[in-house]
Amino acid sequence: MKVIATIGIVLGLLVSLAHAEVATPEQHEKNIEMCTQNLLAIGKAIEVYEKEHSDFPVWLSDLHPKHLIDSNVLICPSDPEGGKPIYTGNTDPEMPVSYSYEINPEYREWKTEQRKVYGDAMPIVRCRHHANEDFAVLNLSFSSRVYRSANIWENKPTEIYENVEEAIVTLAGGIQRHPDNANFAYVYPMLVSLYMKAERAKDAENLINRYKETLKPDSIREHLVLGDMLKRINQDEEQLQLYNKLEEQFPENRTVFRRLAEIHDRLGNAELANEYRIKADPVLALIGKTVPDFSAMDLDGNPISLEQYRGKVVLLDFWAVWCGPCIAEMPNVKAVYNSYKDEGFDIIGISLDTDEDHLRDYLKENDIPWRQVFSGEGWKSPVAQQYGIRAIPAPWLIDKDGTLITHQARGEKLERLVAEALKGKSTN
Length: 428
Ligand SMILES: [Zn+2]
What we know:
Layout: H1 2-23, H2 25-53, E1 100-101, H3 108-118, E2 123-127, E3 137-141, E4 146-149, H4 164-177, H5 187-197, H6 201-214, H7 220-232, H8 236-249, H9 254-266, H10 270-280, E5 295-297, E6 303-305, E7 313-319, H11 324-340, E8 345-351, H12 356-365, E9 371-374, H13 382-386, E10 394-398, E11 404-406, H14 413-422
Parallel strand pairs: 7-8, 8-9
Antiparallel strand pairs: 1-2, 2-3, 3-4, 5-6, 7-10, 10-11
The chain binds zinc ion (ZN).
Zinc ion binds next to loops.
């Protein structure tokens, strides 16, 4: 018995040492170096495979064993699970692989399309296991170069090209070859930013003028792209004219309201900015006011309304199992619930799911005890419609008197807000 206990302690120590080791900067750099070698080897194997098949592999596992003898190359040393990409959608169906294959069957069509604009600097294999404050992903490009980038590399083209001029030449050429492809509209503002960065303001202006000439008068999307381009050359006045015109033409468009709020903020028109902020997000007008009651049935078939919760601090939580950020927040919500449920805090979940079994399975597996409202109508759920919900997560925190404290009670501030509200000092 004594021996076994000792072994247990030694193993425990080894495990904690292994964990501590991963955290040191030296080990971190060493892992990146090893991962880089893996990526380069994968790149070589893909190249040979492509020559032989005149096509890319469907999954990286197709490279093994013929083109990639050692399957360990598919495992990143920083992957704690030894063969799992961070996003489950990228999971190789055949064998453990740590890497995201950018042209797996689900993404291949779009990525092939993107490559026509971004060229071979675009990522084909990515590792997300080394994310830190400097970068999110280690990438292998189609041309077998390894580089670091943000998660959404499209937003930071300078990270994928050797220099700004190369980025400009590639993107300008790309949109010139595909002038009518609406999928690439977002490249235009990016190109404007690149011109500004390269101190080529005249080229930025020319691009904007050419874009204006092809603008379809009734396309809100194209006008919003133009607005984005003007923002990047700091043309507030011209943006204001544009959005004022758009507001007349598309009087219900919330993006137009949001951008008008931003511009008026920058121009120092605080009151107007606020008006537009409320138009863009009408629930803002409810903050500090009594939330109108709703009545519905909960998942157990019992009537439920806000009125039943008067005297309690309530989180009216609009969410869904399919909503990634909602699920990511759940451990925090649960922890706050457990800490304060006996002091008068409660939660009502308003589920925007459409699949009842999915919802019930999730609630059971994750041991979620608070009541849920579910209609099965997704965004058209009556309670969500009543409160004008257009995006989730939307966690509304309501005080003991039924007043809305905030419509974004999440993350670190959730606990503080709940604690304050329970003490009766709802400061927002
Ligand atoms: Zn890696």
